[in-house]
Amino acid sequence: xxxxxxxxxxxxxxxxxxxxxxxxxxxxxxxxxxxxxxxxxxxxxxxxxxxxxxxxxxxxxxxxxxxxxxxxxxxxxxxxxxxxxxxxxxxxxxxxxxxxxxxxxxxxxxxxxxxxxxxxxxxxxxxxxxxxxxxxxxxxxxxxxxxxxxxxxxxxxxxxxxxxxxxxxxxxxxxxxxxxxxxxxxxxxxxxxxxxxxxxxxxxxxxxxxxxxxxxxxxxxxxxxxxxxxxxxxxxxxxxxxxxxxxxxxxxxxxxxxxxxxxxxxxxxxxxxxxxx
Length: 277
What we know:
Structural class: alpha+beta
CATH class of the largest domain: Mainly Beta
């Protein structure tokens, strides 16, 4: 399930939640369990050590530290430990009001969030575990406060991870443009290489470079054309084709619009500048 983190944060901030329990489980190497179901309330799974594969309603998830998983109530559940190490995880079980189900669909869904290596989440999680196993009303109040601190930390980390991933995608796209600017490129084609739609890709590109992908491509092509005009004896038509424009007339108009002068003038201007120097 594709999770909108802003929506998820809004839901947790506005609905009423009751914490059922916090459990810590150690499963030995080779451990497996099939044909079970999740409890009749929602759960958030925190892998701490080792690896496992879990299936919520037959959808597989690779469980490992740095990832956090949510499962809804009464889902089919299969799990098996991967590798030769024991698998250690903690799970927070919580429940929402019955009338919140329609306004909080995430509580009934399974999904994954990447928080990365965040020791603060672990610290808060163990403090929550201790509060939930301590009798009295004050620990109960502290447990709810710790729960929301954990969710805040998870969602903040997930946003940061996604932003970092977006920057990496944009850097890769820029390198691709630098290597293939002479070819026919389009935003849908570039976006498809990173499993994004055109709108998502354009948003990330604008966010990390300050300009859209089409604008960046044009600027790079014009810059390469200027270099070729000043350093080679190629014709306008040849340079136009070299930088990805099959129509030299269109290229000339675009070049003049971007630089203020016709491409045929650039070698003369460059020679005049060199003589003055």
